[in-house]
Design a protein that fits this description.
heteropentamer; A mainly alpha (102); B mainly alpha (481); C mainly alpha (179); D mainly alpha (624); E mainly alpha (488); B: 481 residues; mainly alpha; two-stranded antiparallel ribbon; 17 helices; 2 strands; 3% strand; globular; C: mainly alpha; 6 helices
C-alpha cells in the first residue's frame, strides 16, 4: 500500500478525537459543541476506515457509513433542541442551563 | 411436617392484611386485632400442649425449599427454649395490642395492622431455622416498628426513628454480610444442617447485630431517645420482646455455631455484659423519669443475660432463658404501667412531677409495687431464680463476674425502689390531681394477666428453666471452658 | 514516486484536517466553525480515498458536506446573532485544566498504543483487490452481511426525523403563541 | 408432721393473698381478724407439728418433704423443700406464737388507719416469709425467705408512705439487707461450685474443711446474718426502721426477723465450725455490737429507738452465744428476748398510742401515773431485759455469758464485754423506765392523754401485752442451765454445743451478772429518778451514732450517685450520643460536597466522562 | 448475484412488533382526529409492548441454544429474550403511567411512537452481537430517549435535560465508537465471539478499546463517574419518561455490558472485572451519599438508580454464572420498583401541579393509602428489605461476589445500603410521619383526577416487587437458563 502506514491514520484520528473532546469540554455554545461532537464521530469513522483498509474488510466502511447516518440523526435532534432554545429566547450558552444541579 | 409453627407466624400476618382492608371503624378493627392476638395466644397454648419437652429435637417444624441453588428454605420449628420465646412474644404482644385498643390509637387501621405484622415477624425470628429466613424476619421487625414510633411517637419522634434505624440497620446489615459468607461456606442456609465455623470475623458480624438489638453497652445509643419517644406499648414491645431477638440470636446462632471464637472472645463478651449491667444500673439510678429507669434497667438486664449466655454452662444458659422470659413480662408490664401513669398525669413520667399516687389508688399501687419488686429480683420471685442461675453459672467462669452481678443486685434494689417511691410515695406530685383515677377495669385486664404469669412463674420457675436449653442446638458448648 | 505523491497528499490533508478541526473548536462565531467543519469533512474524504474508500468518501462529501452542514448553516442563520460567544470563559477554574489533562491523556494513551505497535501489525496492511470499497462491494455487504445494520440505520433516521418534527414544530407553535 | 409444717406455711400466705384480692370487699377490721386467725391457726399447726415430733425418738424427729422442683438447671435441682426438725419447730412456735399475739395487738393499735387492710396483708406476708425462712429445707429457700422478710420489712417500715422519713428508712433497710442477700448468694454460688447441691445435709457433708473456701463460705453467711440482725457493720438500718408502726417494730425488729441471723448461724453451724476464725469473728462482732448499742442507747431520746438499740445489743449476746458454739443458749435467749422485747415495744406502743403517736421520751415523761398497767408490764419487761432473777432474761443471758468462759482468752475478753454490756443494759433500760413512767406527767402528756373506754388502750392491746408480760416473767423457767435444760436436750441432735461451762461458773456468772445489772439500775436511779447528780453531757459522737450513717452515705450512696451522674455527663451524652451525631454529620458533609461537584454544567459532566475514561485506560495499559 | 442471508423473523419479533406499533402510531398522528389520538395511541403502544413481551416469552421458550443470526449481527438466546420480557413489561407499565400525563395533545401520538421505538431499540440492543449493531442499537433507543426527555419542551427543565442528555450521550457514543474502532482494528473482527477467538488478549490496543467500550456502556447504565447526566435528565424529563428510562435503559445497558464483556473479552477478564468492581464501588458511594441531601424526590430516585447500577455491576464484576443469574433476577424487582416509585411521584405531581419534594410529600401516605403503601414498599425494596424482591436481589449479588471470593465487595455494598437507609426511609418519613398541619401545608387540593391506569400500573409494579420475593425459585430457574447462554 502506498503512503503512510495505518498507525499515522490512527494518530490523526486520536488527535481529532481529542480536539473534539476539548471542544465539548471547553466551549459553551451548543452549536459549536454539536460540531465538536461531529469531529469526534468523524475521528471514529477515520479509525474504522483505516482499520477496514488494514484488514481488507468492508465491515469497517459499512460501519462508517452507518455512523454518518447516526451522526446526522443526532444533529437533527440537537439542532431541534437548539432551535427550540432560540425560539424561547434562551441564551445559547450551556453554562446558563443550570436549573438542574446539585 | 407440622403446620402449627407456620400458623403461629402466618396468623397475625393474615390478621394484619384483613385489618388493612376491612371496611370497619377504627374501634372494630382494634377489637378484631385484639381478638386475633388472643387467638394467637390460644394457638401457642395448643402448640405447647403438642410439644414433647422430653425431647431435645426440633419440633413442630415445617420445611419447604424456597430457592434451591443457594440452599435457602422455609424452615420453621421450635426447640424447647423457642417455645418460651414464642410464648412471651404472643402474650406480651397481645397485652400491647389490647392496650393500644384501650387507649384508642388514632389511625387505627394502620396501627393495628402494624402491630399484628410485628407479632408475626417476631414469632418468625424465634422460630426460623433457616439463616436467611431468620434475617428476613429480623429485618421485617424493623419495618412496623419504624412507623409505629414515627407516627404515634412523641414530639422528638423523627430524631428517634432516625437514630433507631441507623443503629439497627448498621447492625443487621453487618449480619447480612456474615450470613451470606457463612451460608455460602456451608453450602446451605439451613441452621439445622450447618456445622460450626471458626471465623472470628463472622462471629463479630453476628454479634454486632445482636449486641445492638439487645442492646449492649457501647452500642445502646438508640435506646434512650427511642424508648422515651415511642408510645408506651411500643416501648414495651421494644424492650420486652424485640431486644430479646438479639439475645436469642446469641443463644441460637452466635454461640452454637462459633465455638472457637466464643471461647477466644468470651472474656470480652463477659466484660461487655458486666459493663452494661453496672452502667445501666447506675444510669437507671440517676434517671429523672420512670421510663428512664425502666429502659436503663433493661440495658442492665441484657448485660446480665449475656453474662449467663457466655457462662458456658447449663446453669448460665438455663438461667438466661428464664431471665429472658421474666424480663419480657416484667418490662412489658412496667412500660404499660408507665404509659398508664403518664396518661393519668399528662406528664412524661418525670419524678419531679409525680409522687403520692398510691393514696386512693390501691390497684395502681399494688401493681406498680408488685411488678417493680419482681423486677428487682427479690428472692422467691422468678427473676430471682433467673439471676441466681445466671450468676451461679458465671461464678464458675470466675468469681469476679458474679461479684459484679451481686453488686448490681444491690444497685437494682436502689434504682427500682427509688422509682417506685418516686411515683407512689411521699408527697403528692404537682402533676397528680385527684381526678387522676385508679386503674380502670380494662387496664387491669391488660396488666393483671402479665402479673399473674409472673407470680405463677415465681411459684414454679422450673417450668421454663427446667425445659430450656439442655436441648442443645448444634455445636452446643462444643468448646472447653 | 507514487508513494511520494501519496505521502505529500496525506501530510497536507492530515495537517489541514487537524487545523480545520482546531478551527472548528476555537472560532467564536459558529458560522465560521461550521464552514471549517465542512473543510474538515472534505479533507477527511481525501484521506478516505487514500484508504481505498471511494464510496465512503463520496458519502462523506454528499451526506455531511451536503445535507448535515447545510442544516447547520440554516439553523445558525436562523438564530442569527444570538449565537456569538467568547470562546473560552466561564465555568469553574478546574474545568479547563481538567479538560486539557483528560483530552491529553486519551490522546497520549492512543499514541502509546500506536507506539507499541510501531512496525507491527499496523504496518502490514492486507492487500486489497480493485473492487474493495467500491459502491458495488459496499452495496453487497449492506444487503448480505450487514443487512440489519442497514435497516437499523434507516430506522434511526426515521426516529430522528420524527424527533425533529416534534421538537421543532412545537417551538413554532410556541412562537405563534407568543406572537 | 410434714402436713402440719405445710399448713403452718400456707395459712399466712393464704391470708395475705385473700386480703389483697378481697380489696374493699371486706371491712378493715375483718382483715385484721383474718390475719390474726390465720396466724393463730399457723401457731396451732406448729404446735401439732411439735407434738408429733415430740412423739418420735430423737433420731427421727427431723423430716424433709419436697413438694416440687422449684428450680433446676442441667444436673442441679433445687426443690421446694420444707425441713421440719427440732430447730425449725422451735422457730415456728416462736414466730407464730409471738406473731399472732402482736397481730392481735395491732387490731387495736392500727384501728382507724385508712389502709389497715394493706397493713394486715403485709403482716401476714411477713409471717409467711419468716416461716419460709425457718422451714426452708435448703439454702436456696433459706435465701428466698431471707429476701422475702427483707421485702415485707421494707413494706411495713414504709407503711406510712406519705412520710418521706419512713420511705427513706424503708429503702435503707432494704438496700442494706440486699448487701447481706448478695453475700449469701455468693456463698451459695461457691457451695454449688464445690458441692453441687444446696440441701442442708448434703452441703454440710460435702463442703470443704478449713482453708480459704470454707472461710469464704462462712464469711458470706455471716455477712447475711449481720445485715439481717443489725450487727456491726451493717446495723444502721435498724434504728431508722422504727419509722414503721410499733407492732411492726415489735414483730419484725425485735421478736423475729432480726434474730434470723442467729437462726442462720445455728442452722448452718457445721459450715461455721469448719471455719473457726469466722465463728470467733461472729462472737467478736456480737460483743462489739452489744457494747456499742448499749452506749448509743444511753443518749437516744426516742423511746422506740432506745428499745431498738437494746435489741441490737441483745442480739449481740445471741451472736456471742452462737459464735462461741453455745447454740441452745443462743436459741433460748432468742426466745425469751422475743417475749420481753415484744413486750417492751408493745407497752411503749400503748403509751405512744395513747399520746397521739408521740415518741420523744422528754415529752412522754411521767405517763406511768396515767397508765399503771402499762407501767407494771414495762417494768417487768425492763427487768427481764436487764436479767434480774427470776425474769426471763436472767436465765437465757447469763447462760450465754457463762459459755464465754469455756473459750480461752478470747472467751475471757468477750466475757468481760458481756458483763460491761449487762451494766449498760441496766442503765439505759431503767433510764427509759424512770424517765417515762416515774415522776410527774408532763403538760403534754396530761393534755394529749386520752382513755379508751376507760382503759389505757383497746382490749386487744391490753390482753396481748398481758400475755407477753406473763411470758417474760416465767418464760425463763423453761431452762436453767445448772439444774435443768430441756431445750438444750431437745436441740441437741441438731445443734450440739461446743462449750460446756461448769455449774460453778454458771452460779458465779449469774451472781456477777445480777450485780452489775443492779449496779446499772442504781446508776440510772441516781441520774434519772432521784436526780441526785446532773446528767453528764453525752458525747456528740454517741448522739451521732458513731457516724456510721455518714460513712455509708459517703462510701456507697454518694459514690453511686456521683458515678451515675458522671457516667451520664462523660459517657452517655458525649460518647454514646455524640458518636452517632459525628458519623451522620460526616456523611452529610460528604453529601453536600458531592452535590457541589454535580454543578449542572454539561461540560463538567463530559469532563467527568473523559476523565474516568482516561484513568481507566491508563490503568488497563499499566496492568494488562 | 446476491445471496440474501436468511433472516429469523421470530428472533426479531419482539423488536419488530414494537417497531410496527411505532409505525402505526405515526399514522395515527396524521390520520386520527386529535381527540381520539390519546386513547388510540396509548392502546396501540400498550399492545405493542404486550405483543413484544409475549413474543419474547416465546422466544425464551424456543431458543434453549444460543445462535448467532444474520451473519453474527444478533444473538437469538435466552439471555436477550428474558431481558426483552422485562423490558416489555416496563414499557407496558410506562404506557399506563403516561396516559394521564399532562402533555401536548397534538404530539401524543408521536410520544407513544417514540416510546415504542425506544422499546424496540432496547429490545434489539440486548440481542446485538457485533460492534456495529451494538452501536446502532444504542443510538436507536438513545435518540428516541433524547427526544422523549425534551418532549415537554415548553418546560425549560425538560429542554435543558434533553440537551444535557444529548450532548453527554453523544460524547459517550463517540467514545464507544472509537473504542469499537480500536477493538476492530486489532482483531479485524466486528462480532463478539470472533473478537474473543481472534486472540490478541492483553494487547495494548485491545485493552484501550475495551476501556472505551466499558466507558460508553457504563455511561448508559449511569454508573459513576459516567453518571453525571443522570440526576439532571431524570429530574427534567417528564416523569413517565423518567420511569421508562430508569428501568429500561438500565436493563438494556447492564445486560449488554455483561454480554459484551463475557463474550468478546473473556481473556481480559482480569482487567474488566476489576474495572467494573471499581466502577461499582464508586457508583455505590456516589449514588448513596449524593442522595442524602437531595430534596427533590425524582432527583433522590435518580441518585438511587446510580447506586443500584453499582449493585448490579457487582454482579457483573463477579463474572460467574451466579453473577449473571443475580443480575437478571435483580433487574426484575428493580425495574418494577423504580417504575412504581416514579409512577407514584407522577401521581403526586399531577395533584400538586408542582415538582414533588420531600416537603410537599407530607401527608401523602394518609391521603392516598394505596399509593402511599406502594411507595413504602418500593422504598423498602430499594433499600433491600425483606418482603420485597430487592432483598433477594441484593442477597444474590452479594452471594455472587462472595462466590468469586470478593467479600470486600459485600462489605462495600453493605455500607452503601446502610447509608441509603437514610433517604429511602426519609421518603417514608415524609409521607407518613409529618402531618400536613405540622408544616402548615394544605392537604393536596381536593381529590386527584381518578387515574385507574396509573393505579393499575402501580399495582402491577407492587405485585412484581412483592411477588418476586416469594416466587424466587421460578424466576431464578428462568434466570439460570438465561445465564447459561453466556460463556461464563
Amino acid at each position: 500500500m502506498h503512503g503512510p502506514d495505518i498507525q499515522w491514520y490512527v494518530v490523526l484520528s486520536a488527535l481529532l478525537f481529542a480536539t473534539g473532546a476539548l471542544g465539548v469540554m471547553l466551549r459553551r455554545n451548543p452549536l459549536i459543541i454539536l460540531l465538536s461532537v461531529e469531529i469526534m464521530l468523524n475521528a471514529g469513522n477515520l479509525l474504522l476506515i483505516a482499520m477496514s483498509r488494514l484488514h481488507a474488510d468492508e465491515g469497517g466502511q459499512v460501519f462508517a457509513i452507518s455512523v454518518m447516518a447516526i451522526a446526522a440523526s443526532e444533529v437533527v435532534v440537537g439542532l431541534g433542541l437548539i432551535v427550540a432554545m432560540g425560539r424561547r429566547n434562551v441564551e445559547l450558552d450551556v453554562d446558563k442551563l443550570r436549573t438542574l444541579r446539585g | 411436617m407440622h403446620w402449627l409453627t407456620t400458623i403461629l407466624i402466618v396468623l397475625p400476618a393474615a390478621g394484619a392484611l384483613i385489618v388493612a382492608v376491612a371496611p370497619f371503624s377504627s374501634y372494630w378493627l382494634g377489637s378484631f386485632a385484639a381478638l386475633a392476638s388472643l387467638i394467637e395466644v390460644a394457638v401457642w397454648i395448643t402448640a405447647v400442649s403438642r410439644f414433647h419437652f422430653g425431647s431435645a429435637a426440633l419440633q413442630l417444624d415445617q420445611h419447604a425449599s424456597w430457592f434451591s441453588d443457594l440452599g435457602v428454605s422455609w424452615h420453621v420449628g421450635q426447640y424447647r427454649f423457642s417455645v418460651w420465646f414464642v410464648g412471651m412474644t404472643v402474650v406480651a404482644m397481645a397485652a400491647c395490642t389490647i392496650y393500644g385498643w384501650w387507649v384508642g390509637r388514632t389511625r387505627g387501621r394502620a396501627y393495628f395492622a402494624l402491630m399484628l405484622l410485628l407479632t408475626g415477624a417476631i414469632v418468625g425470628v424465634f422460630t426460623a431455622q433457616d439463616l436467611l429466613l431468620f434475617y428476613a424476619f429480623f429485618e421485617a421487625m424493623l419495618i412496623p416498628l419504624y412507623v409505629l414510633i414515627g407516627v404515634w411517637g412523641g414530639s422528638e419522634r423523627l430524631r428517634a426513628t432516625i437514630t433507631f434505624v441507623v443503629y439497627t440497620v448498621v447492625g443487621s446489615l453487618l449480619m447480612l454480610a456474615a450470613i451470606v459468607v457463612f451460608g455460602l461456606q456451608q453450602g446451605t442456609f439451613d441452621m439445622t444442617r450447618m456445622s460450626p465455623s471458626t471465623s472470628t470475623w463472622l462471629f463479630l458480624g453476628f454479634v454486632a447485630a445482636f449486641a445492638i438489638k439487645s442492646p449492649l453497652f457501647p452500642l445502646h445509643g438508640w435506646l434512650p431517645i427511642t424508648y422515651r419517644e415511642s408510645p408506651a406499648e411500643v416501648s414495651a414491645v421494644l424492650s420486652g420482646i424485640v431486644g430479646k431477638a438479639g439475645l436469642y440470636g446469641l443463644l441460637r446462632i452466635a454461640i452454637p455455631f462459633f465455638p472457637q471464637p466464643v471461647h477466644d472472645l468470651r472474656v470480652l463478651m463477659l466484660a461487655l455484659g458486666s459493663v452494661s449491667l453496672v452502667y445501666g444500673s447506675l444510669l437507671a439510678f440517676r434517671a429523672p423519669d420512670f421510663r428512664g429507669v425502666v429502659m436503663y434497667s433493661s440495658l442492665a438486664q441484657a448485660g446480665l443475660i449475656v453474662l449467663g449466655l457466655f457462662a458456658n454452662n447449663s446453669l448460665g444458659t438455663d438461667g438466661a432463658v428464664l431471665q429472658i422470659v421474666n424480663h419480657a413480662l416484667v418490662s412489658t408490664a412496667l412500660f404499660l404501667l408507665a404509659g398508664m401513669i403518664e396518661r393519668r398525669t399528662g406528664t412524661r413520667g418525670e419524678f419531679a412531677l409525680l409522687g403520692g399516687m398510691a393514696r386512693g389508688r390501691p390497684a395502681l399501687a399494688t401493681l406498680v409495687m408488685t411488678v417493680g419488686i419482681v423486677s428487682l429480683a427479690v428472692p422467691l420471685s422468678t427473676t430471682f431464680a433467673g439471676e441466681f442461675l445466671i450468676l451461679a453459672g458465671v461464678f464458675q467462669q470466675g468469681w469476679g463476674w458474679a461479684v459484679v452481678g451481686a453488686v448490681a443486685i444491690v444497685l437494682a434494689a436502689m434504682y427500682m425502689l427509688r422509682a417506685i417511691s418516686g411515683v407512689l410515695h411521699q408527697d403528692v406530685g404537682p402533676a397528680v390531681s385527684d381526678s387522676a383515677l385508679d386503674l380502670r377495669l380494662g387496664e387491669l385486664a391488660i396488666v393483671v394477666p402479665l402479673v399473674l404469669c409472673l407470680l405463677g412463674l415465681s411459684a414454679w420457675p422450673n417450668l421454663v428453666a427446667g425445659r430450656a436449653t439442655s436441648s442443645a442446638p448444634v455445636g452446643w458448648t462444643k468448646y472447653a471452658p | 514516486m507514487a508513494n511520494f505523491l501519496v505521502w505529500v497528499v496525506w501530510v497536507v490533508a492530515a495537517f489541514a484536517c487537524l487545523a480545520s478541526a482546531l478551527a472548528v473548536v476555537s472560532f467564536s462565531n459558529p458560522f465560521y466553525s461550521a464552514l471549517a467543519l465542512i473543510g474538515n469533512l472534505a479533507l477527511l474524504a481525501v484521506l478516505y480515498l487514500l484508504l481505498a474508500g471511494e464510496f465512503v468518501a463520496a458519502g462523506q462529501v454528499l451526506v455531511y458536506g451536503g445535507a448535515v452542514m447545510v442544516m447547520f448553516l440554516f439553523v445558525i442563520a436562523y438564530l442569527g446573532d444570538r449565537t456569538d460567544e467568547s470562546p473560552w470563559s466561564g465555568g469553574p477554574s478546574w474545568q479547563v485544566v481538567g479538560a486539557v489533562l483528560a483530552g491529553g491523556a486519551i490522546l497520549a494513551e492512543v499514541c502509546v498504543v500506536v507506539g507499541l505497535k510501531a512496525g507491527g501489525l499496523l504496518s502490514k496492511p492486507q492487500h486489497v483487490g480493485r473492487e474493495f470499497g467500491t459502491p458495488a462491494a459496499l452495496g453487497r455487504a449492506f444487503l448480505t452481511d450487514h443487512l440489519l445494520a442497514f435497516e437499523i440505520t434507516s430506522i434511526v433516521l426515521l426516529v430522528a426525523a420524527v424527533g425533529g418534527v416534534v421538537l421543532g414544530s412545537h417551538a413554532r407553535m410556541e412562537g405563534d403563541a407568543r406572537a | 408432721m410434714a402436713a402440719a409444717a405445710w399448713v403452718t406455711l400456707a395459712l399466712p400466705l393464704a391470708a395475705a393473698l385473700a386480703i389483697s384480692f378481697a380489696g374493699t370487699a371486706i371491712s378493715r377490721r375483718v382483715a385484721g381478724y383474718v390475719s390474726t386467725a390465720t396466724t393463730m391457726g399457723a401457731f396451732a399447726a406448729a404446735v401439732v407439728a411439735f407434738a408429733e415430733m415430740w412423739g418420735k425418738s430423737a433420731a427421727h424427729r427431723g423430716a424433709a418433704t419436697t413438694s416440687w422442683t422449684w428450680l433446676s438447671a442441667g444436673p442441679y435441682h433445687f426443690g421446694l423443700t420444707l425441713l421440719a426438725d427440732q430447730l425449725s419447730v422451735v422457730m415456728m412456735l416462736i414466730v407464730t406464737g409471738v406473731g399472732s399475739l402482736i397481730i392481735a395487738y395491732s387490731v387495736g393499735y392500727m384501728d382507724g388507719e385508712d389502709e389497715e387492710r394493706r397493713f394486715f396483708a403485709y403482716m401476714s406476708l411477713f409471717v409467711f416469709s419468716m416461716l419460709l425462712l425457718v422451714e426452708g429445707g435448703n439454702l436456696l429457700l433459706l435465701l428466698a425467705g431471707w429476701g422475702m422478710v427483707g421485702l415485707s420489712s421494707y413494706l411495713l417500715i414504709g407503711y406510712y408512705q406519705e412520710r418521706p422519713s419512713a420511705i427513706q428508712a424503708a429503702k435503707k433497710a432494704f438496700v442494706m439487707n440486699a448487701f447481706g442477700d448478695a453475700t449469701m448468694a455468693l456463698t451459695l454460688f461457691l457451695l454449688i461450685q464445690h458441692t453441687g447441691r444446696l440441701d442442708y445435709g448434703g452441703v454440710f457433708a460435702a463442703s470443704p474443711h478449713g482453708g480459704a473456701v470454707a472461710n469464704l463460705i462462712a464469711l458470706g453467711l455471716l455477712g447475711g446474718a449481720v445485715a439481717k440482725s443489725a450487727q456491726i457493720p451493717l446495723h444502721t438500718w435498724l434504728p431508722d426502721a422504727m419509722e414503721g408502726p410499733t407492732p411492726v417494730s415489735a414483730l419484725i425488729h425485735a421478736a423475729t426477723m432480726v434474730t434470723a441471723g442467729v437462726y442462720l448461724i445455728v442452722r448452718c453451724h457445721p459450715l461455721f465450725e469448719k471455719a473457726y476464725v469466722v465463728e470467733d469473728l461472729a462472737a467478736g462482732l456480737g460483743a462489739a455490737t452489744l457494747l456499742m448499742a448499749g452506749l448509743i442507747a444511753l443518749v437516744q431520746t426516742d423511746i422506740k429507738r432506745v428499745i431498738a438499740y437494746s435489741t441490737m445489743s441483745q442480739i449481740g449476746y445471741m451472736f456471742v452465744g452462737a459464735g462461741l458454739g453455745a447454740y441452745p443458749n443462743a436459741m433460748f435467749h432468742l426466745m425469751t428476748h422475743a417475749f420481753f422485747k415484744a413486750l417492751l415495744f408493745l407497752a411503749a406502743g400503748i403509751a405512744i398510742h395513747a399520746l397521739a403517736g408521740e415518741q420523744d421520751i422528754r415529752r412522754l415523761a411521767g405517763v406511768g401515773r396515767l397508765m399503771p398497767f402499762t407501767k407494771w408490764v414495762f417494768l417487768a419487761g425492763s427487768l427481764a431485759l436487764v436479767g434480774i432473777f427470776p425474769f426471763a432474761g436472767f436465765f437465757s443471758k447469763d447462760s450465754i455469758i457463762t459459755s464465754a468462759l469455756d473459750h480461752g482468752w478470747y472467751g475471757d475478753v468477750i466475757y468481760a464485754a458481756c458483763l460491761a454490756g449487762a451494766f449498760l443494759t441496766g442503765v439505759y433500760a431503767f433510764r427509759l423506765y424512770f424517765i417515762v413512767f416515774t415522776g410527774e406527767p408532763t403538760p403534754f402528756a396530761r393534755e394529749h392523754f386520752h382513755r379508751h373506754h376507760g382503759q389505757e388502750g383497746p382490749a386487744s392491746m391490753l390482753w396481748t401485752v398481758g400475755v407477753l408480760g406473763v411470758l417474760s416473767v416465767i418464760g425463763g423457767l423453761l431452762q436453767f442451765a445448772p439444774i435443768w435444760h430441756p431445750l438444750s436436750t431437745w436441740l441437741d441432735p441438731v445443734d450440739r454445743p461446743l462449750v460446756a461451762p461448769t455449774n460453778a461458773q454458771e452460779w458465779v456468772t449469774s451472781a456477777i451478772a445480777i450485780a452489775v445489772g443492779l449496779a446499772g439500775i442504781a446508776v440510772a436511779w441516781v441520774l434519772y429518778a432521784a436526780r441526785r447528780v446532773p446528767v453528764p453531757r453525752a458525747l456528740p459522737a454517741l448522739e451521732k451514732k458513731l457516724y456510721w450513717d455518714e460513712l455509708y452515705d459517703a462510701v456507697w450512696y454518694r459514690t453511686s450517685d456521683l458515678a451515675g451522674r458522671a457516667l451520664y455527663a462523660l459517657v452517655e451524652k458525649p460518647l454514646i450520643g455524640g458518636s452517632i451525631a459525628a458519623v451522620t454529620g460526616a456523611v452529610g458533609l460528604g453529601s453536600r460536597e458531592l452535590s457541589v461537584a454535580q454543578n449542572g454544567l454539561v461540560r463538567s459532566y463530559a469532563l467527568a466522562l473523559a476523565g474516568g475514561l482516561a484513568v481507566l485506560a491508563v490503568v488497563f495499559l499499566a496492568v494488562r | 448475484m446476491i445471496h440474501k442471508p436468511h433472516v429469523d423473523w421470530f428472533a426479531l419479533a419482539p423488536s419488530l412488533s414494537l417497531l410496527g406499533a411505532a409505525g402505526l402510531l405515526l399514522m395515527v398522528a396524521v390520520l386520527v382526529p386529535r381527540g381520539a389520538r390519546k386513547p388510540v395511541g396509548a392502546s396501540l403502544a400498550f399492545a405493542g409492548f404486550v405483543a413484544s413481551g409475549i413474543w419474547a416469552a416465546f422466544l425464551d421458550d424456543r431458543s434453549p441454544h444460543a445462535a448467532a443470526l444474520v451473519h453474527d449481527a444478533m444473538w437469538r438466546d435466552r439471555w436477550g429474550a428474558l431481558a426483552q420480557v422485562i423490558l416489555a413489561g416496563s414499557g407496558a407499565v410506562a404506557v399506563l403511567v403516561s396516559y394521564r400525563e399532562r402533555m401536548r395533545d397534538e404530539h401524543v401520538a408521536e410520544y407513544y411512537a417514540l416510546l415504542s421505538a425506544a422499546g424496540a431499540g432496547m429490545a434489539f440492543f440486548v440481542q446485538a452481537s457485533n460492534l456495529m449493531t451494538l452501536f446502532l442499537g444504542l443510538e436507536w433507543f438513545s435518540i428516541s430517549l433524547y427526544v422523549l426527555t425534551a418532549i415537554d419542551i415548553d418546560l425549560i427543565g425538560s429542554l435543558e435535560a434533553g440537551l444535557k442528555y444529548l450532548v453527554v450521550g453523544a460524547v459517550g457514543s463517540a467514545t464507544l465508537l472509537f473504542g469499537s474502532g480500536l477493538v476492530y482494528g486489532i482483531t479485524g473482527q466486528l462480532s463478539f465471539d470472533r473478537i474473543a477467538t481472534a486472540g490478541h488478549a492483553h494487547d495494548a490496543m485491545l485493552v484501550v478499546g475495551l476501556a472505551m467500550v466499558i466507558a460508553g456502556l457504563a455511561f448508559k447504565s449511569s454508573a459513576a463517574p459516567f453518571h453525571m447526566w443522570t440526576p439532571d435528565a431524570y429530574q427534567g424529563a417528564p416523569t413517565p419518561v423518567t420511569a421508562f428510562m430508569a428501568s429500561g435503559t438500565k436493563i438494556a445497558a447492564l445486560v449488554v455490558t455483561y454480554r459484551v464483556l463475557a463474550t468478546a473479552f473473556p481473556h481480559d477478564e482480569h482487567l474488566w472485572r476489576w474495572a467494573v468492581a471499581a466502577i461499582a464501588c464508586l457508583s455505590l458511594a456516589w449514588g448513596n451519599i449524593g442522595a442524602l441531601v437531595q430534596r427533590n424526590v425524582k432527583r433522590i430516585l435518580a441518585y438511587s438508580s446510580v447506586s443500584h447500577a453499582g449493585f448490579m455491576l457487582i454482579a457483573v464484576a463477579a463474572a460467574n454464572q451466579l453473577g449473571a443469574r443475580a443480575l437478571l433476577y435483580y433487574l426484575i424487582p428493580y425495574s418494577a420498583m423504580s417504575l412504581g416509585a416514579f409512577a407514584v411521584v407522577a401521581a403526586r405531581e399531577r395533584e400538586l401541579q408542582a415538582p414533588v419534594t420531600l416537603r410537599n410529600l407530607a401527608g401523602f401516605g394518609w391521603e392516598r393509602p394505596f399509593l402511599g403503601v406502594s411507595m413504602w414498599v418500593f422504598m423498602l425494596g430499594m433499600l433491600g428489605f425483606p418482603l420485597t424482591g430487592g432483598f433477594i436481589g441484593k442477597f444474590y449479588v452479594f452471594a455472587a461476589a462472595y462466590r468469586h471470593g470478593w467479600w470486600w465487595l459485600i462489605v462495600v455494598g453493605v455500607v452503601a445500603t446502610m447509608i441509603s437507609a437514610y433517604y429511602y426511609l426519609g421518603i417514608v418519613r415524609a409521607m407518613y410521619f409529618r402531618d400536613t398541619a405540622e408544616l402548615q401545608l394544605a392537604p393536596a387540593g381536593g381529590s386527584p383526577p381518578y387515574d385507574p391506569l396509573l393505579t393499575a400500573g402501580v399495582a402491577v409494579a407492587l405485585a412484581v416487587t412483592v411477588g418476586s420475593f416469594f416466587a424466587v425459585q421460578p424466576l431464578i430457574d428462568v434466570a439460570r437458563s438465561a445465564a447459561n447462554a453466556l460463556p461464563l
